[in-house]
Amino acid sequence: MEEAKPAAAAGSRPGTRADPIFGYRRYWAHRLTPAPVLPMSRAEMDDLGWDSCDIIIVTGDAYVDHPSFGMAIVGRFLEAQGFRVGIIAQPDWRSSEAFEALGPPNLFFGVTSGNMDSMVNRYTSDRKIRRDDAYTPDGAGGMRPDRSVIVYSQRLREAYGSVPIVLGGIEASLRRIAHYDYWSEKVRRSVLLDAKADLLLYGNAERALAEIAHRVAGGETIQEITDIRGTAFIRNRLPDGWVEIDSTHLDTPGSLNPPEDPYAMEGVGETNGPPGGTREAGPNAAAPDEVQVVRFVRNVKAEDRSRSVIRLPGYESVSGDPILYAHASRILHLESNPGNARALVQRHGNRDLWLNPPPVPLTTPEMDALYELPFTRRPHPTYGDARIPAYEMIRFSIAIQRGCFGGCTFCSITEHEGRIIQSRSEPSILREIETIRDEVPGFTGVISDLGGPTANMYRLHCKSPKIESACRRPSCVYPGVCPNLNTDHSPLISLYRKARALPGIKKVLIASGVRYDLAIESPEYVRELAQHHTGGYLKIAPEALTDGPLSKMMKPGMDTYYRFKELFDRYSREAGKEQYLIPYFIAAHPGTTDQDMLELALWLKENGFRADQVQAFLPSPMSTAAAMYHSGVNPLRKVTRHSERVHIPRGLKVRRLHKAFLRYHDANNWPLLRDALRRMGRADLIGNGKRHLVPSFQPAGTGGTRKDDRQGSRRKGAYRPARTQHARQEAGDFKPKRSGRAGKKRR
């Protein structure tokens, strides 16, 4: 066997130096790879001449060999390292039989729920079961269990006992610490403990995966690997020589209902800690002379920083005290910059959950090599003619970047991918376009998207690496665009122009979300977008109208939207195109009152927007907005017992009302809205004129009382929905109203 490069000593602190992810000496099995597709059965392994797999990935998604699918990019990456990789996709979890299809791996199992958290995938924001699943053949629902990584890990333990299990993907990433779970309405333990797995990888895991695979192949056990960034694992005690920092020295949270000592940590005493405080400890805790607890300061000596860890309040503490939960959430988000983040530790019972600092972002050459691995860009052949909706959506799209520095509190992109933008090179992206053109069946000359988490953060970064490595701001664009941020869109404009100039390319559309507060920093980009890359409608996301919810979302005000709209409309007219912005809004977000939603409904009516579908806030695990929802305080500021209280729209009744305001035009919502308007003292908005929000009558056959139905029958023909745009499939959720002859937009 060819040996991998030497590893760092176990137990040492992971540094910010990063070895190239393709710099390892390939494992001996590279002689047997690459495979046409990664095998999903013993028969396919036999055809490849494999007696076993080195690594097996268990996933909740159907296997599509495309770089937009997590199991494909991880599987092809490990294959490029020389390992034989198998896939078990959407196994029947009711027994262990399906998990034995490929036999045991030589190194470890990798377990993921797929491209989505399994609970988000399975349930709506109102906790109703979804009927379909876009990541399943023919969109069939119910093909993965709730809390997939836990269930899959349990079945693997039943099948193979002590074979190492490594968790990864979005579900593991967002549940890596004690987290509020919206579906059970309680704080749950780290998924690492509930799954009884050996190691958890969070964020973009290629760097960690390569080192783990080579080190395990070289003879190390999973339990010995504790020095890799982007990993979480269980410890019984703090290693010798480490400095422990109590997180309550950064914030001083207070309890909603203070117990006798809300900061008590049973066991060992501490120095320089809060009065009367004690450090959490279990049976195997370090002795007092093995740990020093110090007050948090920003300018810690280099020698201390290199071996310091921040202790968060333990699971038992945060599960019983929402204020401590908000405090822990704030600390985790402050410690998310790879340039200055420290390790975190959180007690769960008598064991410590240890989180190493986030992974070092990939370089452009690494991104290029990763996305140019030999993907077939098609579903596995075993699916035959079955249609996989998620694949149909992205098969002609290209990822040009990773990461997002927007910091929206309701979004989990930053918690997973980080806020440092990782971009591919222009030549690599153009080569992938040519590959799609030449090799992907059904290509008609239209690239459906060039983007990523956002459309226009490509190659944007902090002007100063020193400032970037020291920054703890959760967003580079809120409350305004940071003066240290490079907002030059010229590399992206150049990419767009070269992409659409390629032979055989008719059009390049932009489907990823455009960050319009960034776009207005480059009017030339808005011109390029409006005149060449918009198919009649451009979806953007103001999310809310008023300062209350916007400040809790960390989104810009509507003035920024109007500035972008003015540019977009001007450049569309210059090109002789009739194009529209389709704004997205969220209902029931923390900080949103009924009055906020009423103002939004009036704005939508005034501007002629009608929503076919609406999005209600869903508290995703580990997000800042979920901490607001659970605690009722604002963790964007220092968390104390006097922290700003946030209005939380709780309960199904309130959520239905907020969604009804977004769909003010739906007759089924009119009874609910009429009741709300009367309660709010705005009965003046009920009537049959243009200035009214909802009519005073109720059409027959729609939600309402018998009296309303009779009244609607007597006034037959009085209600006439406004005409909507044609090309329904392009319009998305929102459609501007039309009046008069076709082509004339109501102003």
Structural summary, described in words:
The protein has 26 helices and 26 strands. It has 747 residues and is an alpha/beta fold. Among the domains are: 208 residues, Rossmann fold (3-Layer(aba) Sandwich), CATH 3.40.50.2300; 106 residues, no CATH class. Helix 10 runs antiparallel to helix 22 and helix 14 runs parallel beside helix 16. The radius of gyration is 27 Å and the shape is globular.
Based on secondary structure, the structural category is alpha/beta
Strand content: 5-15%
- Please compute the radius of gyration using only Cα atoms: 27 Å
Number of contiguous helices: 26
Strand count, sense and barrel status of the largest sheet are: 11 strands, mixed
Q: What sort of overall outline do the alpha carbons produce when their principal axes are compared?
A: globular
Mean pLDDT: 87
CATH class of the domain at 28-235: Alpha Beta
In helices, the fraction of residues equals: 25-40%
Query: Regions with pLDDT < 50 over 5+ consecutive residues?
Result: 1-13, 254-299, 705-747
- By CATH, the architecture of the domain at 28-235 is named 3-Layer(aba) Sandwich
Oligomer: single chain
Question: How many beta-strand elements?
Answer: 26
The rounded distance between the terminal residues' Cα atoms is: 72 Å
CATH domain fold name of the domain at 28-235:
Rossmann fold
Strand order of the largest sheet: 2-1-3-4-7-8-13-12-11-9-10
User: In CATH, what is the homologous superfamily of the domain at 28-235?
Assistant: Response regulator
